[in-house]
Structure formats: structure tokens, C-alpha cells
Amino acid sequence: MDLIQLRAFVTVAREGNLTRAAERLHLTQPAVSLQIKSLQASLALQLFIRTPSGMALTDDGAKLLPFAERVMESVAEFRQGAAALHSTLSGTLAIGTILDPEFIRLGAFLKRLVETYPQLSTQLQQGMSGWVLQQVKSGMLDVGYYLGTPTKEFHSQTLTSFTYNVLAPKGWKNRVAGKGWAALASLPWIWTPPESAHNRLLSKTFGEHKVAPNKVALVDQEMSMLDLVKSGVGLSLVRESIALREAHAHGLVIADAVSLSTELSFICMAKRKQEPAIAAAFALLQALWRH
User: What is the per-residue pLDDT across 138-147, written as a single tens digit (0 to 9) for each?
Assistant: First the structure.
């Protein structure tokens, strides 16, 4: 058993598919399959079973996965600690943040950044996705989080994909159930400024359906949007995890026939991606979101 085999085990477990795992590991599928077979042989345990959709963990595999993940995390921390001993990075890195810190894993990222590069300080500025993009472009921010994929003048790294639901007030089930975008457009909408991802996604979607939404309020904070939905003002675009939580806790209604997908990205100007502090930030985030 070695670290290469453990990494293959963790990656296949997370992806649930040998082909996707091989792509993530930058290996061929037979190479990954061989690593899994070798690990199973060394442990005298079957870790996976084949399914029509790919690979599923056995009970033994599921029990061992948390241990393997901790080993890989410890190895990453060890490497970061070693890198810190060689680090000469100093100065300030201006970072644009969006949404809530937990969702973007901001705390974990800053912890790794400080531990790995103790002489590098950070300056955080919170704003909407489009505002972060503008500030990175102007040079006021070095890097930042962004929703979606920016233009080619930016260098971006996709951290995760997620879904937005349309959330409606309590008691609106009959008004939104089974309704598509064209029908939903006539209902009252809680709108957001042009700099927000909500505005960008909804404007594109309604434009494609050639309908104009009925905008009744303009807000720039997620919590304000939720409060207005709870108050019965209208519909709002909300991250799926929050929509499910609010539906369960407060009886709010999720429109069941529509949803929108986007990506959480980390961006900088393409011409600056090789700058040491920026390159270091991207490398740390890649390691953080790989697990």
C-alpha cells in the first residue's frame, strides 16, 4: 500500500466512476484500475463493486474512506509545511469574497495560506460576483471568487458546481408547481443589481424565453431576499441547499419545474496568473477543493 494507491482509492470513491477519476488524476483508466486492484490485494478486502453507472463503495470501503482521506489531508499539510520553510512570499494579497464564508471555504483557505506563507498578509473585500470581477480587472483586487466562467482575459479555476432553485412564499405551491420560466415571469420577483450572479443568470434565462419578469423589489443581500420571500413579497433565486433548508424550516415553496446551474470559480487577470502570490493562492485552493 502506498500514497498513490490511497489517492486513487479516494478519488474513485468521490467520483464514483473510473473514467472521471482517471481524468482527475491525469492517468489512464487501466492505470487507476490497477492501483485499486493492488490496494485491495494488499488489504485483502474488496473496496468497490461495479454498478451500471460506475463504481460504488462496499461496506468495508466506506468504513476505510475517512481514514484514507485523513492520510491524504495530512500529506497535503506536510507538503505545505515543507513549502513554508522555503517560502519567501511576502506582501499583501487582496482577495474579493462573495456569498457566505462557509460555502466558499474561506476559513480553511486563509488558514492554509497563513500557515504556508506566514509573511504574506491578506486583505479581504466582500461584494457581489460582478463587482469582484470588475475590481480584479481594475487591479484593486488581486484575486477573487466569482460565480460562472469569466471571459478569456481572466484566468479562472472552477472550485465546484451547484444549483439555484426558485423559492416562493409559503402557500404559493399552486402558483409555481409545474410552471416553466415563461409562466413564472408574470409572478412578482425579488430582483438584484446587475453585478449579481442572480441578475446575470435570470436575465439570460428570461431573455431566452423572450419574456420580461415582473420585478417588484431590488435587493443586494441574500438574507434580505430570503426575508422578502418569507414575507410573501415574491419569488427569488436561491442556492439549492438554502432553498431546501428554508422549505423545511419555514414552509417556503420550491418551484419544481425549473432550476439553474452555475460554478463557483476563483479568478485573476490572465496576465497576472504567474505572479508568485497569485499562483500560490490558486495552488492552495486547488488542493483544498480536491478533497
Answer: 999 999 999 9
